[in-house]
Amino acid sequence: MKKQRRDFIKSLGLGGGLMMLDPVTLYEAEKCPEPVEIDREVYKKKIMYTDLLVAGGGMAGICTAIAAARNGLKVVLVQNRSRLGGNASSEIRMHVSGASMLETVWRETGILEELMLTDSIENPQRSYEMWDFILYNKVYAEENITLLLDTSVWEAVVEENIIKKILATSSQTEELFEIYAKQFADCTGDGTLGALAGADFMRGREAKSLWGESLAVDKADLNTMGNSLLFTSQKHDKKMPYTPPSWARKYSTKDFLHRSVTNWEYGYWWLELGGLEDIVGDGRKIRHDLLATLFGVWDYIKNSGNHPESENWALSWIGMVPGKRESRRFIGDYVMKQKDIQMPQSFDDRVAYGGWPLDDHPPEGMNSTGIQPFRSIKVKKPYSIPLRSLYSKNISNLWMAGRNASVSHVALSSTRVMATCALMGQAIGTAAAYSLRNQVSPTQLGNEPKHIQPLQQLLLRQDQGILGVKNEDPGDLARKASVSASSSTSEGPASALLDGINRDIEDGKSHQWQAEMKDEGAWIELKWDKPIRINNIQITFDTGLKRYLRISPQDWVYQDQVRGPQPETVAEYRIELKNQGKAAGDITVKDNYYRLAKHNISPVQIDKLRLFIDKTHGDTLARVFEIRCYLD
Question: What is the pTM of this model?
Answer without folding.
Answer: 0.93
